[in-house]
Amino acid sequence: MKNEGKSAQRPDNTAFTQQRLPAWQPILSAGIVIPGFLIIGLAFIGIGIGLFLTSQTIQVQEMDYTGVEKDSPCFRCTIPSNLNCTCEVTFSLSTLFTGPVFFYYGLSNYYQNFRRYGVSKDYNQLTGDTRYFKSRSPEEDCSPYSYDSNNNPIVPCGAIANSIFNDTFELYQIINGTKKQVPLDGRGISWWTDYNIKYRNPSPVNGSLAKAFDGTVKPINWPRPAYELDLTDPNNNGFLNQDFLVWMRRAALPQFRKLYRRITDGDYAAGLPAGNYSLTVHYNYPVLSFDGRKKVVFSNVSWMGGKNNFLGLAYLVVGSLCVVMSVVMLVVYAKFKFSDDDDA
Amino acid sequence: MMFYDLFSGVKWEVRANDHYFHQSCRRKSFLCFRWGRYADNVVRSYKYTPLTFLPLNLYEQFQRVANLFFLLIVILQSVPIIATIPWYSTMLPLLFVLLVRGCKDLATDLVSLSFLSFSQSILLNSFHLHRSLKTSHISADLLLLCSTEPHSLCYVETADIDGETNLKFRQALSVTHTELNGDSVKQNLAAFDGIVWCEKPNGNLHSFKGELHWKGERHLLDTDHLLLRGTVLRNTDIAYGLAIYTGSDSKILQNCGKLKLKNTQVEMLLNKTVLVILLFMITTALLLAVGAGLFEHRVSPKYDVVSVLQRDSSPAYLGFITFWGYIILLSPSMPMSLYITFEVIHMVHCLLIGWDIEMYWEDNNSPAQARTTTLNEELGQVGHLLSDKTGTLTQNRLLFRQCFIAGHIYGLLISLMLFSPLDLSWNRFSCGGLKFSDQRLVDKLRERSSPECQEFFTALALCHTVMSEWRDGLPHYQAASPDEEALVCAARELGWVFLSRTRETLTISEMGLTRNYQLLALLDFTSKRRRMSVLVRDPGGQLKLYCKGADIVVLERLQRDWPLQESTERALELFAQGCLRTLCVAVRSVPEALWTEWSRTLSQAGTSTGNQETVLEEIYDQMEKDLTLLGVTAIEDRLQEGVPETIATLRRAGLKVWVLTGDKTETAVNVGYACKLMDPDTILIQGEELRSENTDRRAVKSKAALVISGPELAEMTKAPEWGAKFVALSDQCQSVLCCRVTPAQKAEVVEMVRKHSTSITMAIGDGANDVNMIKTAHIGVGLCGVEGSQAVQNADFALAQFRFLRRLLLVHGHWSYYRICILLRYFLYKTTAFALVHIWYSFYNGFSAQPMYESWFISLYTTLYTSLPIQCMGFFEQDVSAKSCLCWPEIYSIGQKEQLFNPLVLAITLLYSVYTSIILFFIPMGILQYSALDYQTLAVTVQTSVLLTMTVEVILHTKFWTKYSVAAVVFSLVAFFLSTLALHSTRLFTFVDITKCILILCIIICVFQSNVIDLKINMNQVNIL
């Protein structure tokens, strides 16, 4: 008893309280770091070369069709009064453009990442909840594209939906002077999560999607309401329209491209054969007011994605730096080791 | 109320046994409001009640600038027009911080609560009559009514109040003594119905004015009737008193000022850095707001998609709105949770100090104790150690080893191992324990052949304030100071036995012959007088004054041309060389006439007002002169175990050790050599040399130590600029010895060092005379010594032994400094790099305050993803092992030179974070920009890179991988990936983006890896060199 009382305040002798926890104490010695840097550097150079070479094999066909220059085919369509204007851009491929070919449209100087623009939509509405067709969840967000001048609710509301890209394209291969249409596949170009989870159509009323939109009006810039976005495919309408979904997933940078179609079907499953092509543009989307540019991009992909020299170069640069560092460290190490020997 | 008019200023009324009267006046409190006049006796060291906890704690927490800042941010975020990120992004971390902090406060409070109820085993109700038992702390300011001792005397020790260690007596009014004492004390007391009128509670410990009204009579009361809270009752079985001031009204608590909060250098630099970050943040937000204004002005009007959204607002207004948006967005660069982490780490480090078994002293069952929880890292930066000598370097267990009587030195200073005890069987009072060995003296005493020797020991047996207590037929002494105990015990062993004392008599046995001395006056010891005397009438009727005191004060009060001057001085020198403490003993025969006159002056002084202390001192001075020297005692105060080794190690660690002592120069110098403060070949610079101009050069050339005495110090400090010169000179010397310094001078010296050098000062001491010094220094360390707990109570750290200082500084201090610096740097790095990415992104989104991360990431980043690994590092990291810390004390200089946390290092850290943020944004952007890059993909890529980069950074900094560190890193990563999976719907990376993202991450990590490894190698090389 007495002993207990006497050493009552004696601290516990455990590894934790005495800071003697078993621990691994790696020491970055020259013997590990220099070869480590060398190996990492060489590996990175290897990856870099691989990436760079792969990137070189990827074919990209990019064409600006804004029509700034007077001699460009779409110049006449840039005049605002010229409605339903169509223009034709031709190009030729000297070799086979290996498939599957991805067909993008691109915009530059276009701020889809502007904060006020980005929040200008109503998620609740886009999940198909008809309660939010008439009222808005945060009332502010969609404004001023919330109600039209007659105070009818706009569905889908907001600036993003209203500003949807509405140029359309048709691609023809010119074989002996005749145009052969290249089938464009618009299925599955949107994100899987967008199509299957985030966006839902309202439940049809009496089997009609249009009735679900009763009491609402189309966005101001749209030619047709949401339930008539695709007249050819009744399943590609409403909030689940592929082009709509692609547009709604806003771009990160002011210069961006979005997937328009894929070329996967029929004669062109293996790619676009060498030859002359003509792209018919239904020119609707005005960009010149803010000095914007529009373009179309045809590209194929490899295991590393689209054409991208930057990634390969970055790997090469970092890899070379590692190698250089390892050499520098080796020199420094040798020098110090040498002088140590001298001292001894 | 007549009394009010009669005694203006006397406004405190206490009625004995009148419960109802006081109940109505009891001070009550609700929240922060208090009313009522009288405090109850429970000292509320705890702050909260269940009801007040929430409002009070929140109120306290929002007094912190950081918390308030973030509250403002949350408020800003709830304004829809500027809310760039949802309100919960900042709210979550803020709640987290408030919650942790609140829990901590509550826990500390609960601990103090349970501690309090334990220590207050006798809880007191206000204004009851109190009974205090022997050797118990008195728990309220009591008016002494009666005690079991004759004349209702009562001895108290006031060491905890004023630091004076001698016993003082208090006496009850004779009226209460005679009326209340007797067989039926309790009934008498219960019937006591006196009313006390006195001053309002105040902090003046040495004055009390009041009067007792009882049975129609008025009795004046003064401080002699008062038993103060905090004093210890000695030699009195039971004392009864009336509580006058209780609880927070008591004098000691009124006297203790608010604790000055000490801030460490690191913390001050941190605060400055945070301020810089804040300024940087505001400037950046301002510039970005200008950018936003320009964008609205130049670009937006042409760009109707955007301009429509802004609804005709002017660019200036939009810029203004954007400014606040960016303030919100950049606010994470303020390390909000840093302060709380900082506190938690400090607390854990304090616990670890208390848990260290190598700083636990078996003998008095005391572990080390960190009393202030904010100073840990400063332990690793101490540049000047200012130490007391007695009780700090030495044991303060005093042994009577030698004496000098009438030209002879008795006793040999030999090792205690070789010591053969004297045969003292002839003395029936002998208790043993005498480490004095000289048969010649014993023979002389027994033969009664040397009157000088007899007189010498009579003086020792009479001149003291020791109390005796009889157990098993032997006298046991209770002394307030160890010197006295040693001397009285030595006298007892050699046949001059102090038997007992009353207020008026002293009984001693001289070689078996019991004699009664009448005690006429006791001229007590103060640290200023440095001597004490007793005036007695011996059995023969002669008046004699026995005086005992420091040699310097006693020798100057001797008769002129005293004999044996030379041999005395030689003896003093000899004792000093042996590191012995000396006291001179002298006597004076007082003529009857002088005594009558003197006692009259004394009693007059007692009633006079004004500064009683100085008046008394003068009167005492008149009596203590024309003394005849009886002899000199030499007491050995042995060095504590491990002191020389500790000092040698600390000196190797680059600490300047200063010893401040009240002892005389020779003793101090010898102790200095003995404890390796100076090497044998060190040159001493003292006296005139200190003043000469070329001293500086000499000090540089050779090993030197400064020796300065109190009087010299007092004289020199008068000259301005002298302090700077002295400190500069001392920096070139090995060590500094300040001898004969008073407690106030000790503090002055500390103040001087603080003022004239940039280094951290640490003061260590054990006694009440060191309190000033301990409070003045950056860090105060108290040793739980023989001399009471005063020093410990005022100290930041408490140790049991001086040698533990080595571990406290070199191991705990170094680790704390290392851990905290790394932690702070990492914190600043991770928060700024995180926030800066927004700036780079704003160049691409029209300065629209678009966040780069998803909102859930912003809120979870500091709290969940990056908090644990760095905290583990703060707890467990060891750059070098404890053993290496002690083996190579040179490592300690890292902290002294502030190598790990200084403006340069901070600037580099911040630049590094800027660089990191550039890499973190531009590499993913560069790689992804030619693909169908959407905002979410970029955000997820960047935030994953941020998290991985920060984790890799912590991994590369960790040198000590415990299982907890591994678990923390794994937890953070798993938490991130799981929450990312949970917060996104399935299959986030469709198409081929997934391969690309992985490759991007690889490259980013690699860029950092190379940087950090490079940095580390450089550091290692520096360390090796």
UniProtKB/TrEMBL annotation, chain A:
GO biological process, one term: phospholipid translocation
GO cellular component: endoplasmic reticulum; Golgi apparatus; plasma membrane
Main location: membrane
InterPro entries in the cross-refs: CDC50/LEM3_fam
Superkingdom classification of source: Eukaryota
TM ranges: 27-53, 313-334
Keywords attached to this entry: Membrane, Transmembrane, Transmembrane helix
Places the protein is found: Membrane
Family assignment from sequence similarity: Belongs to the CDC50/LEM3 family.
PANTHER family reported in the protein's UniProt record: CELL CYCLE CONTROL PROTEIN 50 (PTHR10926), CELL CYCLE CONTROL PROTEIN 50B (PTHR10926:SF19)
Protein name: Cell cycle control protein
Species, as recorded: Cyprinus carpio
Lineage of the organism: Eukaryota, Metazoa, Chordata, Craniata, Vertebrata
UniProtKB/TrEMBL annotation, chain B:
Keywords from the UniProt entry: ATP-binding, Magnesium, Membrane, Metal-binding, Nucleotide-binding, Translocase, Transmembrane, Transmembrane helix
Entry keyword ATP-binding: yes
GO biological process terms, semicolon-separated: Golgi organization; phospholipid translocation
Pfam family, one: PhoLip_ATPase_C
Top-rank taxon: Eukaryota
Segments forming a coiled coil: none
Transmembrane region(s): 68-90, 110-129, 274-295, 315-331, 399-419, 826-844, 900-923, 935-957, 964-982, 988-1008
Documented EC number(s): 7.6.2.1
Major localization class: membrane
P-type ATPase C-terminal domain span: 792-1008
Keyword Translocase in annotation: yes
Amino-acid positions noted as binding ATP in the UniProt annotation, renumbered to this chain: D388, K389, T390, E484, F525, K548, R581, T661, G662, D663, R740, K746, N769, D770
Record's catalysed reaction(s): ATP + H2O + phospholipidSide 1 = ADP + phosphate + phospholipidSide 2
Subcellular compartments: Membrane
Residue intervals of the P-type ATPase N-terminal domain: 35-91
A single MF term (Gene Ontology): magnesium ion binding
GO CC, any one term: trans-Golgi network
Membrane topology label: Multi-pass membrane protein
Binding-site positions, Mg(2+): D388, T390, D766, D770
Cofactor: Mg(2+)
Homology family: Belongs to the cation transport ATPase (P-type) (TC 3.A.3) family. Type IV subfamily.
NCBIfam families hit by this protein: ATPase-Plipid, ATPase_P-type
Protein name: Phospholipid-transporting ATPase
Species annotation: Cyprinus carpio (Common carp)
